[in-house]
Amino acid sequence: MLNKKDLLGIKELSVEEIDLILDTAAGFKDVLRRDIKKVPTLRGKTAVNLFFEPSTRTRTSFELAAKRLSTDVINFSVPTSSVVKGESLIDTALTVQALGADFIIIRHSSSGVPHLLAKKLRASVINAGDGTNEHPTQALLDAFTIREKKRKIEGLDIAIVGDIIHSRVAKSNIYSLTKLRARVRLIGPPTLIPKEMEGIGVGVFHNMEDGLKNVDVVMMLRIQMERQGRGFFPSTEEYFKNWGLTPERLSLAKDDVIVMHPGPMNRGVEIASEIADGPKSVILEQVTNGLAVRMAVMYLLAGVKR
Amino acid sequence: MRILIEKGHIIDPSQGIDGIGDVLIEDGKIKEVRAKSKEQGAESKKQKPHKSNSELRTIDAKRMFVIPGLIDMHVHLREPGFEYKETIKTGTAAAIRGGFTTVCCMPNTYPINDNASVTEFIIRKAAQEGLCTVLPIGAITKGQKGEELAEIGTMRNEGCVAFSDDGQPVMNSLIMRRVLEYSKAFDVPIISHCEDLTLSEGGVMNEGLLSVTLGLRGIPAEAEEIMVFRDIMLAGLTGGRLHIGHVSTEGSVKLIRDAKRRGVNVTAETCPHYFSLTEDALRDYDTNAKVNPPLRTKRDIEAIKEGLKDGTIDVIATDHAPHHRDEKLREFDLAPLGISGLETALPLSLRLVDEGVLTMNQLVEKMSFNPARILGISSKGSLKQGSDAGVTILDTKKEVRVEAEKFVSKGKNTPFDGWVLKGMVVITISKGRICEWQ
């Protein structure tokens, strides 16, 4: 069991805890392969998806993960909630808890919101993405996918490409993959990679060709279209010319390279369709693994006596 | 009424007094000070107490320091408009609790203090309800919009002692130039909140590895330093009186030091949080440590201490910025900026004396004498005969635990909650009243 009430970020996890989650997820993945994909493990528990930002895949994944564990799920999304009537974040969360929530799965555009709620709530808080801080379950499912494909993580060369500075997925992956002793390198324009990153034990490349050489894993990030025109890069066309993942560029990586993307993808902006749909892509497997990892997280947090 | 403060350790930089002695107050004015001055090593004045028929209250100040009432040239009293955060009454009550007998309130109220009628309101309200002297700071531009000059001369006549668009820095260099020129006619300082808003846009903390780690938008030190440099250049160009507010970075200290060497008419202040805390206070997303300019790094703290020590930084002000607890108890990005500082400023600053950064005399200079000099209020910041009898008596040995919930201020927003600090204000004499605490 995880000796924690909440999953706030990878920063807060030890290597042993990450391994435990990944091992547990492997067991749940077996469950998902069965004809009857549901276990009674967390029957009677209640999970609330408290999403202050639009999300389809993460919310659905958590919802289905909870249902596979026989947990009741409520989706509480902003446009339908009393938040639009001016209710404070804390009041909303306390209300949800009062309804009997055991898990509060929170996504918010402000970094640190899960930490604030974790302090104020008895329920387990699971961070489903906070601002530009972390998205821990995405990093866990990515690590799970890499481990499944490569049978190990230690010693692999892994490139994370794109909008690092705004990406909570990148942050969580940097923390988890360096903890698991992979060699991580970041590739992208200097405006999208904070210069401080070089100080935390990752390589930084501004040239895509140099960065992709001999890597085992390429992890693409979504380029948020709203960054265009904000001075981060001049146009999506220029971005793709320099940092888009094309078959030619991918050929610089190892032959058995795998390509990952947390979705949603912008085809033709950060990734060419031939790659997204090609044999090296594990993008859809990531989605499946997300279920298993989220089941594992809920299962392991539920074991903590409070 | 007469008040005799006996046997305290008197420190008064205005007269070079640093020794044991007595202070006699009569009808709200300093009547007499008898003490050994350090330089002379002799009694500075030897007169018999005047005979008078009025009642004499004697205060035993043995083992205490007796200093001119502190002057905070940078507070937000929130009234008019934001009385749920603070009022003139509660803000001045917090001031005297913290040993301040004069505070200067920034103009970002609602309505903004950009015209004489708001100035008049503040002064009248402060006369009725204020527990210490309140000297308003007027806005530089109408509506603090940075576009058109406010009626500085009229507000000056009504009682404003300085001008600032604090919180809404004047981005237009031409307007800043004009105000530094125009204000010379009234001999008032222009207090600049130095922040390049285009560079700091969306930022909520210091830019660096920690802001990346926390996923919070950073404000680089350069956002402050660029404007410090601009304003120094404009002060040089115009000869206007520039006072740099809340200095937070090493680079700013260097720029100001260099400008002073070159003879530019510039003074500067910092706040206790900029020499007491680093950005690490934000590690747990504590909104009570969210302040503008943001808490910086150890290196900056060292530079600020050095600047205080060598006189580059003239003043310690609080930037007292009270907020309602509900406003701070929310998303970090959305929580308002500021620290409720009046009740912790003196003990935090006394740590500088303990560390050997400042002498007690220098501390009193930075918290009383220098602000009075910069603001041109000669009747304050001194224990000279005839000065206003704002007097602070403090026990620098006594340890006190900071308890935010017990703050007199409405604003309980402090990152120092639970800290044990040395130095307690025992008595503040303000507006002829003796306020005493155990």
Q: Could you characterize the architecture of this molecule?
A:
The complex is a heterodimer of chains A (306) and B (438). Chain A is an alpha/beta fold and 306 residues long. Chain A has helices at residues 15-33, 57-68, 89-98, 113-120, 136-150, 168-179, 208-212, 236-243, 247-250, 273-276, 283-302, and strands at residues 46-51, 72-77, 103-108, 124-130, 157-161, 183-187, 203-205, 217-220, 258-260. With 438 residues, chain B is of the alpha/beta class. Chain B has 13 helices and 18 strands. In chain B, the strands form three sheets. In chain B, strands 1, 2, 3, 4, 5, 16, 17 and 18 form an eight-stranded mixed beta sheet that branches. The longest helix of chain B is centred in the middle third of the chain and has 18 residues, at 221-238. The mean pLDDT of chain B is 95.
Topology:
The complex is a heterodimer of chains A (306) and B (438).
Chain A: H1 15-33, E1 46-51, H2 57-68, E2 72-77, H3 89-98, E3 103-108, H4 113-120, E4 124-130, H5 136-150, E5 157-161, H6 168-179, E6 183-187, E7 203-205, H7 208-212, E8 217-220, H8 236-243, H9 247-250, E9 258-260, H10 273-276, H11 283-302
Parallel strand pairs in A: 1-2, 1-3, 3-4, 5-6, 5-8, 6-7, 8-9
Chain B: E1 2-12, E2 17-26, E3 29-37, E4 56-60, E5 65-68, E6 70-75, H1 88-97, E7 100-105, H2 116-129, E8 133-138, H3 152-158, E9 162-164, H4 173-182, E10 190-192, H5 197-200, E11 205-206, H6 209-214, E12 218-219, H7 221-238, E13 242-244, H8 250-261, E14 266-270, H9 272-276, H10 298-309, E15 315-316, H11 325-328, H12 345-354, H13 360-375, E16 391-401, E17 420-430, E18 433-436
Parallel strand pairs in B: 1-4, 1-5, 6-7, 7-8, 8-9, 9-10, 10-13, 11-12, 13-14, 14-15
Antiparallel strand pairs in B: 1-2, 2-3, 5-16, 16-17, 17-18
Helix pairs in contact in B: 2-3, 4-7, 7-8, 8-10
Biggest sheet architecture of chain A: 5 strands, parallel
- Shape field of chain B: globular
Task: Estimate the helix proportion of chain B, in percent.
Answer: 25-40%
Supply the number of helical segments of chain A. Answer: 11
Radius of gyration of chain B: 21 Å
Strand proportion of chain A:
5-15%
Radius of gyration of chain A, taken over Cα atoms and rounded to an integer in Å: 19 Å
* Approximate strand percentage of chain B: 15-25%
The total count of strands of chain A amounts to: 9
What is the structural class of chain A?
Answer: alpha/beta
CATH top level label of the largest domain in chain B = Alpha Beta
Main β sheet profile of chain B: 8 strands, mixed
What is the CATH homologous superfamily assignment of the largest domain in chain B? Metal-dependent hydrolases
First-last Cα distance of chain B: 23 Å
Average predicted local confidence, pLDDT of chain A: 93
Order of helices and strands of chain A: HEHEHEHEHEHEEHEHHEHH
